[in-house]
């Protein structure tokens, strides 16, 4: 594995130090302020930490290759190392303005947005003044297959009229969420090509006709203040100029954002797995049963060893995918990106589960963050496409090596939601 450039290593050290000294000690304060603020609020400590990170230049690391206003000029491979650090502390990525779904949305706006869209939405997102959501998944259709999306946008004069329902719209619970990147049908002709019927359009959260039907729960957690909303759109009108790139180009945009989001998710997951492994080691050495530390009992040494081996595998596979994105491009790296999206959340789920077991009853309680960590990681086997869809892509790429399999089919079945 190649070394980091010295300036990137120095940057990574600064990020790690900032997380340890400024963010980790504020985790409890953040949770307390969410509680006191009625959950769907902006905890003041988050804005304080953001201001500090921004002032120190620790901001917007995520757009590969961009410097200045758009980022720090890091490659995907370099950024991956930062993402791992951020992943160990749940609130860290927001502090550096590097959290989903804003990162993917900013990437889309930067690549495909008009000048007006950039001015209105990208600038405040880059500045961390507002947040955003991505609305693809719908309650009424199997959304693993993105061509099933049924919400509509119909042109009426200078406006699109939007109707439909979306759920699992992450981030929509945050009062700072001002804009949804909304995937919808613009070509109602069922005989039109399946991947040319959908578009992505910008829908301001304060538009008339948007109803929050409920906030979704993950194993009973509401994930406030970020949250995942079930939204209903009834005759919501937005200016024609809110269309991104053009009608029928929704899948083209979704393909364009394929990649970095999955690297971010997976490296953050590795960071979380490392935290679980550390907790497993600390707990199993500090508690004694049957006259020995827990670590020395039964197969616990093997469990610890396997966790280390599997986390290293997860990290290396993710770094390899990131390296390929940097060197041969997102398209050629598509199978590797799908591979990590399957294997990394599965490995990290297992590691957290083992850490829970080694903590006994405390592992599933509120005393340790493990249950919460597990819930978050388990959702990553669904969010941004379930395991099976990504496995299907990997298998198709493999089969394609030995036949004339149509690769465009693979790509369009595996659109990015991160
Ligand atoms: C916490 C969380 C956050 C999310 N955030 C967002 C968000 O911000 N924006 C957004 O648009 N969506 C979001 N999602 C939704 C997520 O992307 C979808 O849940 C996912 O794509 C699956 O769609 P579905 O729920 O409709 O499942 P379905 O399409 O109904 O699929 C159900 C199951 O069918 C099986 N299946 C599907 N296809 C295949 C196949 N080819 N082979 C074998 N089995 C298959 C899988 O086991 C799959 O889990 C989020 C989900 C969660 C849990």
Automatic annotation (TrEMBL):
Q: Which family does it belong to?
A: Belongs to the acyl-CoA dehydrogenase family.
Signal peptide coordinates: none
Question: What residue stretches are annotated with the Acyl-CoA dehydrogenase/oxidase N-terminal domain?
Answer: 6-129
Which Pfam families does its entry note?
Answer: Acyl-CoA_dh_1, Acyl-CoA_dh_M, Acyl-CoA_dh_N
Q: Which biological process annotations from GO are given for this protein?
A: fatty acid beta-oxidation using acyl-CoA dehydrogenase
Residue intervals of the Acyl-CoA dehydrogenase/oxidase C-terminal domain: 248-396
Checking InterPro entries in the record gives:
Acyl-CoA_dehydrogenase (IPR050741), Acyl-CoA_Oxase/DH_mid-dom (IPR006091), Acyl-CoA_Oxase/DH_mid-dom_sf (IPR046373), AcylCo_DH-like_C (IPR036250), AcylCo_DH/oxidase_C (IPR009075), AcylCoA_DH/ox_N (IPR013786), AcylCoA_DH/ox_N_sf (IPR037069), AcylCoA_DH/oxidase_NM_dom_sf (IPR009100)
Q: Which GO terms describe its cellular component?
A: cytoplasm
Q: Where is the Acyl-CoA oxidase/dehydrogenase middle domain?
A: 133-232
Query: Its Gene Ontology molecular function terms?
Result: acyl-CoA dehydrogenase activity; flavin adenine dinucleotide binding
Q: Which SUPFAM superfamilies match?
A: Acyl-CoA dehydrogenase C-terminal domain-like, Acyl-CoA dehydrogenase NM domain-like
Give UniProt keywords alphabetically.
FAD, Flavoprotein, Oxidoreductase
User: What highest taxon heads this organism's lineage?
Assistant: Bacteria
**Assembly and binders:** Homodimer.
Name of the protein described by the UniProt record = Acyl-CoA dehydrogenase, C-terminal domain protein
* Cofactor(s) this protein requires: FAD
């Amino acid at each position: 594995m190649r070394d980091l450039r010295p300036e990137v290593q120095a940057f990574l050290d600064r990020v790690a130090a900032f997380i340890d000294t400024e963010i980790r000690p504020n985790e409890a304060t953040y949770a307390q302020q969410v509680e006191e603020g009625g959950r769907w609020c902006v905890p003041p400590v988050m804005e304080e930490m953001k201001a500090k990170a921004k002032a120190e230049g620790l901001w917007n690391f995520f757009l590969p290759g961009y410097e200045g206003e758009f980022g720090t000029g890091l490659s995907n491979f370099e950024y991956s190392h930062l993402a791992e650090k951020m992943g160990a502390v749940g609130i860290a990525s927001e502090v550096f303005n590097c959290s989903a779904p804003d990162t993917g949305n900013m990437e889309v706006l930067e690549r495909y947005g008009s000048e007006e869209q950039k001015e209105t939405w990208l600038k405040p997102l880059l500045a961390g003044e507002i947040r955003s959501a991505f609305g693809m998944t719908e309650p009424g259709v199997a959304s693993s297959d993105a061509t099933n999306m049924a919400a509509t946008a119909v042109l009426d004069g200078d406006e699109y009229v939007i109707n439909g329902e979306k759920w699992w719209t992450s981030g929509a619970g945050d009062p700072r969420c001002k804009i949804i990147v909304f995937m919808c049908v613009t070509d109602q002709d069922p005989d039109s090509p399946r991947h040319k019927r959908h578009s992505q359009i910008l829908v301001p959260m304060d538009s008339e006709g948007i109803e929050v039907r409920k906030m979704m729960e993950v194993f009973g957690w509401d994930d406030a203040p970020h949250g995942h909303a079930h939204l209903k759109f009834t005759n919501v009108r937005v200016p024609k100029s809110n269309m991104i790139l053009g009608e029928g180009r929704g899948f083209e945009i979704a393909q364009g954002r394929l990649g970095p989001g999955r690297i971010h998710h997976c490296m953050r997951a590795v960071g979380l797995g490392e935290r679980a492994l550390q907790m497993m080691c600390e707990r199993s050495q500090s508690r004694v049963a049957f006259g020995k530390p827990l670590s020395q009992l039964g197969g616990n040494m093997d469990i610890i060893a396997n966790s280390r081996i599997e986390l290293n595998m997860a990290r290396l596979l993710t770094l390899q995918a990131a390296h390929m994105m940097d060197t041969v491009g997102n398209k050629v790296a598509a199978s590797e990106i799908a591979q990590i999206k399957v294997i990394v959340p599965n490995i990290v789920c297992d590691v957290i589960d083992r850490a829970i077991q080694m903590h006994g009853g405390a592992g599933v309680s509120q005393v340790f963050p493990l249950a919460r960590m597990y819930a978050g990681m388990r959702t990553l086997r669904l969010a941004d496409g379930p395991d099976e869809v990504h496995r299907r892509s990997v298998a198709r790429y493999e089969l394609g090596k030995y036949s004339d399999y149509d690769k465009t089919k693979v790509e369009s079945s595996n659109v990015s939601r991160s």
